[in-house]
Amino acid sequence: MRIGILTGGGDCPGLNAVIRAIVRKGIGEHGDELVGFRDGWRGVLEGDTVRLDLAAVRGLLPRGGTVLGTSRTNPYALDGGPERVLATLERLGIDALIPIGGEDTLGVATRLAEAGVRVVGVPKTIDNDLDATDYTFGFDTAVGVATEAIDRLHTTGDSHHRTLVVEVMGRHAGWIALHAGMAGGANVVLIPEKPFDMDAVVAHCLHRFESGFSPIVVVSEGATPTDGGMVLSDGEKDAFGHVRLGGIGAALAAVLEERTNREARAVVLGHIQRGGTPSPFDRVLATRFGLGAIDAVHDGESGIMVALRGTDIVRVRLSEATAQLKLVPPERYAEAEVFFG
Ligand code: F6P
């Protein structure tokens, strides 16, 4: 078969491991020809391809980013976009497409599958907010980076008797903040799912100072105060309509410094959470997703996504996975609230 592969949305540690697994099994076991599309859906729209043979995937397992490049291009936001996608696939004789992406990239895949394209999706996002899978690769790596940062900030914060606010990624879901906050022993964890009360955050920080230690506040970039008073975005939107976030950490630190009468500093981890080599867990999950995807294509599947349920790789409907985001349930946050507010 001639199978197309693309990576869309934010890059994520493990994307290259998926590509390698698809190519290795596709060529080694099925005699497939693999075609890479550059920069997500842009490459499909423009027919911009790269040949993916065995030599092209050598050494890819530990490499961060994506050798195919990525973009947030949305064919459905462009005049004649879906028609151009279909024309490229027809012209290049692509029998099936394996898009690797999050809610946006796989949302496009869902619609293309409905239009008759043979599609098997692979879930990725460091935010871990894609539904119908227990975990996405990239999340474990991001949590590892954020946890190491929190560990380091404890010692410098305590030395200077100041509050340290750590802003982590998480537009709609607070999974990175919750897991890194738990793993790193943060004193306050603020997530988008639960608007926070500034008075309570101040009280937690003061309490921590009283016990002789400095507070660590972990905040998702998408968290908001209950009074909604902070300006968090520069107003820019991407092709899927998402505003660009950032700034909550600095805004929080300014309020905390004033109200606790102690110095407060903000650290924004940003793209450090996404770049670099994937953790062993993410390499294994990404590899298993890639193997599962190529097998699904050869089983004649379409309109599905590979997913992790427990320890098994399963197949779920793409429409099920992209219907809604997987947010942190209130009871999961409450479970750890004894450690933070
Ligand atoms: O979608 C994943 C994510 O990590 C979000 O948490 C974050 O808002 C976004 O990517 C930022 O990505 P970029 O800087 O590439 O727009």
How do the helices and strands line up, and which of them pair or pack?
Layout: E1 2-7, H1 15-30, E2 33-37, H2 41-46, E3 49-52, H3 81-91, E4 96-101, H4 103-114, E5 120-123, H5 139-160, E6 163-168, H6 175-184, E7 188-190, H7 198-210, E8 216-220, E9 233-237, E10 243-245, H8 248-260, E11 264-268, H9 280-298, E12 304-309, E13 312-317, H10 318-322, H11 330-335
Parallel strand pairs: 1-2, 1-4, 4-5, 5-12, 6-8, 6-11, 7-8
Antiparallel strand pairs: 2-3, 9-10, 12-13
6-O-phosphono-beta-D-fructofuranose (F6P) binds next to loops.
What is the percentage of strand-forming residues?
15-25%
**Number of helical segments with 4 or more residues:** 11
Low-confidence stretches: none
Q: Going across the biggest sheet, name each strand in turn.
A: 3-2-1-4-5-12-13
**Helix-strand category:** alpha/beta
The total strand number stands at: 13
Q: N- to C-terminal separation? A: 54 Å
Helical proportion? 25-40%
Instruction: Note the run of SSEs as H and E.
Output: EHEHEHEHEHEHEHEEEHEHEEHH
Calculate Rg over CA atoms: 21 Å
Cofactors and ligands: 6-O-phosphono-beta-D-fructofuranose
Morphology call: elongated
